[in-house]
Amino acid sequence: MGKIIDQIKAGKILVSDGAWGTFLQQKGMKPGECPEEWNITHPDEVLDIAKSYIGAGADMIETNSFGGTIFKVEKYGLADKVFELNKAAAEISRKAAGDKFVLGSVGPTGKILMMGDVTEEELYEAFKEQVKGLEAGGVDAIMIETMTDLDEAHLAIQAAKENTNCEVFCTMTFEKTVQGEFRSMMGVSPGEMVNTLIDAGADLIGANCGNGIADMIGIVEEIRSINSEIPILVHANAGMPVYKDGETVFPETPDEMAGLVSKIIAAGANIIGGCCGTTPDHICRVREEVDKI
Amino acid sequence: MSELLAKLANCIEFGKINKAAPYPPQLKGEDGADEITQQALETGIKAQQILTDGLMVGMEKVGVKFRENKVFVPQVLMSAKAMSTAMIHLKPYFLSGEVKQKGTFIIGTVEGDLHDIGKNLVSMMVEGNGWKVVDLGTDVKAEQFVAAIKENENAVVGLSALLTTTMVNMEKITKAVKEAVPGAKVAVGGAPVTDDFRKRIGADAYSADPQGLVEYLNATL
Predict the structure, then answer these.
(1) In this structure, are residues A149 and A187 in contact, taking their beta carbons and an 8 Å threshold?
(2) What is the pLDDT along chain A (293 residues), one digit of tens a residue?
(3) Which of A1, A128, A156, A252 qualifies as a cystine partner to A239, CB 3.0-4.6 A?
(4) Which residues of chain B are within 8 Å of residue A32 when distances are taken between CB atoms?
(5) What DSSP character marks residue A101?
(6) Which domain holds residue A208?
(7) Of B64, B72, B75, residue with least CA distance to B24
C-alpha cells in the first residue's frame, strides 16, 4: 500500500483540491485552446492554481492533465507531446505541493470501445503513455476520473498498475436518473462499479463531477453498501450549473458545501474535494470542517 | 409482411445488427436488421414502408426508453448500428428519390468544444426518424452554421455543447443563424444546457434527450 492509502487506513480524513478547468479560463485560457499545452506555454499560471489549493489547506492536489491522452491532445496537433505535457503537468503540481501529495489526473479518451472507435490495445497504450509521463514528473498517485464506461476504466487502471509504481485511484461520474437512481452515461451504477474497479487493481474508488455534494452522499452510501473497506474519494461539483448574465455559474457556496462534509464522512468518504465550480475558498472551508472532526 | 416489419422494429429497438451479432443475448442466432431488411425488400415491401413501419418504430421505442432512463448510451448505440446496417440496403431508394426524407437537420458541436458523443447520438436518432442530417462535426463556428443553412434555408439547426464554458457560444451562433436566415429554427442541447438557458439566448427548442428533439422536429413539419 502507498502513502495516501496508509493515512486513510490509519483513520485520517483527507482533503483534496477543487476545480482546474474553470480556473484556467479565469487565467485567460480561451475555449479551443489545449489546457495541457498550458503546462509548457503558461507554467506560472498553472503553478498558481496548484499553489492556491495547497494554500487553501488541501492534503493533495491534482495535475493539469485531465485531457492528456493522445486521443485528446492529437486534436490540437500535439500527438507527439503526450509524455512531455504530462511530465510537465506533474512537475508543476509537485513544485507547488511540497510535502503534500500529487494526484496525476487521467480523464476519459472520448472514444467508445463498443462502437469500434478504438481497440482495447490502443486505449491501454494511450493510458500507459500518459501515466508514464505523470510518474516521471513525480506524482504520488494516478487519479483516473470522470469515467463512464467500466471497460475503459478497467484498462486505464490496468495501464497505471502495470506501468507505474504509483497508487492508482479511479472515480466515475454518475447522474441521477428520472427514477432517482445513480447511473453513469453508459448505465453503470455506483454499486456495479465497485468490484470491477477493485478487481482491476484500484487502491481507491469514488465519484467526481455530475453532482453537488448532497447527491454524492447517496453515491458514497451505495458504494459502502457493497464494500466497507475500500477507500472512497469524492470530488463534488459546487451544485449544478445555472446560466446567469451571459455566463455559467455553479451556485453552491463554500459554506453550503462545508455544511455537508460531516454527513459525507459519516456515509463513508475518506477523501473530500471539489470538481466543477469549486474554488480554493470551498476547499478552505472543507478543510476547516474536516479538522473539526 | 407486417410480421417482418415488426421483427425489424424489434431488431432496431434491441440493437440486433445481424445474425452473427452476439448482442442482445435474447436474440442470439436469429436474423438481425441486416437480414430482415433484405428479406423485406425481396418480398416486395416498399423501402419507404420498411423505413416508416419498421426502422422508425424501433428507433422511437429506444428513444423513449432512453428518455425514461430505462436504457443508456450503449443500447442506443447498438440500435443506431442496427439502423445504419439496415439503411445500407435502403440507400439506393433514397438516392433515386423513392424514399422521401422529412426534412434536413444541420447539427454541430459549437466552437471551442471537441466533444462528439452527445452530438453523434442525436444525429443518429434524428436520422433514424427519417430526417436528412448534415453533421458539421465539432468545434463548429457561426460562419459554418450560417453557410450550411444558406444552402438549405428550410433546415433546422441543432447546437451541441458539453462544457459550461463553451455553451455560451450558442448565443452568438443562434444570433448569426437567425440573422442570415430570418425565421430559421435553432435547437440546443447538451449536459449543461437547460430550457432557461435556451430562452435567454433566443433559441427555439431545448430537449434533455434526443427523442424530445425528434418530436420537436416532427412538429415543425
Answers:
(1) no
(2) 469 999 999 999 999 999 998 899 899 998 789 999 999 999 999 999 999 999 999 999 999 999 999 999 999 999 999 999 999 999 999 999 999 999 999 999 999 988 888 999 999 999 999 999 999 999 999 999 999 999 999 999 999 999 999 999 999 999 999 999 999 999 999 999 999 999 999 999 999 999 999 999 999 999 999 999 999 999 999 998 887 777 778 999 999 999 999 999 999 999 999 999 999 999 999 999 999 98
(3) A252
(4) 111-112, 139
(5) E
(6) 3-292
(7) B75
- Contact: B72, A186; criterion CB under 8 Å: yes
Q: HSE on the CB side for A29, CA within 13 Å?
A: 25
- pLDDT tens for residues B126-169? 999 999 999 999 999 999 999 999 999 999 999 999 988 899 99
Interface of B with A in 19-48 (CB under 8 A): none
Smallest CA–CA distance, residue B40 to chain A, in Å, is: 27
Q: Which residue of A has its CA nearest to B201?
A: A246
Cell of B38: 433484405
CB contact under 8 A, A22 and B75: no
Fold of B104-219: Rossmann fold (3.40.50)
CATH number at residue A138: 3.20.20.330
Cβ separation A21–B165 shorter than 8 A: yes
Is A248 an interface residue toward B (CB < 8 Å)?
Answer: yes
Q: Say whether residue A22 is in contact with chain B using an 8 A CB cutoff.
A: yes
State how many domains chain A has. 1
CATH of domain B2-96: 1.10.1240.10
CB pairs under 8 A between A and B: 69
In angstroms, rounded to a whole number, what is the distance separating the alpha carbons of residues A239 and A221? 19
Q: Is A126 helix (H, G, I), strand (E, B) or coil?
A: helix
Residues of B in contact with A148 (CB under 8 A): 73
CB contact under 8 A, B114 and A248: no
Rounded-to-integer distance, Cα B110 and Cα B162, Å: 9
